[in-house]
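Allow me, if you will, to draw on your knowledge of protein folds for a short while. I have a record of one protein: its chain in single-letter code and its fold written as discrete structure tokens. I remain grateful for any guidance, and I place the record below:
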Amino acid sequence: MKKILLPLITLSLLSCSSEDTLEDVNIQNNEIQTKNDLLQRGGGGFVNTPTDPQNKVWQIIDYPWQIYGFYSSFLNKHMYSSSGHPSMIPKTQPGQSWYFLDRALGATDGEGNGNGSMISSWFNTNTQDLVLTTNPNEFTGQNGWEKVNDLGKSFIGNEPGTFPIYRYFRNETKSHFYTRDKNELGDGKNGFVYEGIAFYLKEPAPYEYRIHDGTFYQDKKTNSVYVVMEGQLRMIENTEVLTRVFDFRNKRPLNMPATYINKIDDIEIIQGSRGPMIQANARLSEDVNTGMRYFSDPNGTRGNLKIIPSMLFDIYHFNDGSLVRTTGTNNSRLQELKKTY
């Protein structure tokens, strides 16, 4: 599968320490009053959609299961990859810069829903030839061939929107060549021998990439920071809330930040369910008698205290340095914080 890359930034933050003192705090489910206008518009201008298993957040991206073609005028060879970057091309010697992106062949059935055969990539370490095939048995008894990866399924030729990919081989350079335009080489020329139709592809379509809970974004226009929580995109009210509730402290041994923020041009690129703002009265707590941890997330005039399952504490990147020690948080009606995706 083509790797989906997102630009990352980190926040340089002062780490906050808290004294290990016991506060006898009884957390109530509707303890804090906030502004009515935030309740009415969900905070941050978002509609307050209820937490629901059907909630989801996604981004429309380029279809990830494409096949890209590269060419090296130095080696006079063609290479193919599911990545659009030459660094991913298999090789037996240095020199990825010799290859430049020449073409996009088309898209495979990367999700595997169709009935076509799997297209796999094979590289010969002796000749530096690369073959795309739906029949790996063609290499039986031949030396030097190693499988690179699977690129996704081929489509059936009579499916709407499909087109053939034509395969050629030039013995002089020990190089295979693939094209979707048979007029390019016809039945063979310039030393290339036509080997037939290799498989069928389609034009790439926009792809809905679903975003995991616990992912952070910053809108470059407003500098506002958001987190995906329970399938909703939620604005975080300010930096104080961000650094107190969530963990951005550098971690040893690599001194890397505990949490990354994806910086994007416009938050509206991120589509799907919107939730209420995480406000200044949000806090984390831990019951010293039971060891259970809680996220107090009041929305408007209604409290919203939830149990944090141990596995989700790290998934949501909560800050254990900000836990308020409590006793007596016993309420069988409390819901658990959920991970929807």
